Amino acid sequence: MENNYIxxxxxxxxxxxxxxxxxxxxxxxxxxxxxIPFIPGPRLLQYTPNMDSLIKEVFxxxxxxxxxxxxxxxxNGDVSDSPSPEFKKKYVKKTRGVDKSENSFLSEGMKEIRHxxxxxxxxxxxxxxxxxMLEIIKDRxxxxxxxxxxxxxxxxxxxxxxxxEGKYGNIISTLNLNIFFAINEIIDKAPYDxxxxxxxxYKTGYGEDLDSMLSKKTHPSLFYDYVYSADTDxxxxxxxxxYIVYETVxxxxxxxxxxxxxxxxxxxxxIQLKESYNLETMDNVxxxxxxxxxxxxxxxxxxxxxxxxxxx
Length: 312
Prior knowledge:
alpha+beta; FAD/NAD(P)-binding domain; 2 domains; ten-stranded mixed beta sheet; six-stranded mixed beta sheet; 9 helices; 29% strand
């Protein structure tokens, strides 16, 4: 294999490595945020022709089908299908501390999201899909379980954490831009204001008996799959069959949210982009993915479309 490298083994890096078989995928702990032991909010394989074709290729013997995720907006205790202009302003201020909104915020203004599920995996389809793709990449011998200590895009040199160094032909970075700037020896970070705000994630049970909710048809996911809120201590709740995931800006005090017992939590993760730059390349290095391009709109389907353009 040539000395071409994809830096970072999250969903963006896995998609790129699946198609670019002449590139090493470099990551000591691939899958990124998918290593968290519960799904941190909506993780959907949005339907596009490219995504549909890829999933059927990776799972040729499975039942691939589409579902609709319904989005709600909680305002003053009432949940509706559409947010008010005032809601959008309050939500952006609360979650990012800024006054300017972007089209990609709040699920791009969509009320419903058509997405793909595999067999009866439901909400687990996203993680299972990327885990399977990573297995394929490993079986090819394409995974390099290292991290990059530094690289020089002018001299095309790269140095790994084990101090092995050499020349490279091509680099695609899916790394957070802050990490990208920290390991390169040339590119100036100064023009970019790469601020983030924090998110906290809480997995809770349901306060009411699950079988009872299902029999009475009061289970929240029968009406909405996830709900945004700007005037509560949580900013989004995602309804899974057996549990709820809440997102918040500040850590929750106590052991319940809305009367639902907290089972697991991850707090103060600096992963909320305050402003998008939508970068694609930097000094002959291709940038790919949400944190690499510093673009809130980049999701798995946009990454896939871009990689397909490279290979056509």
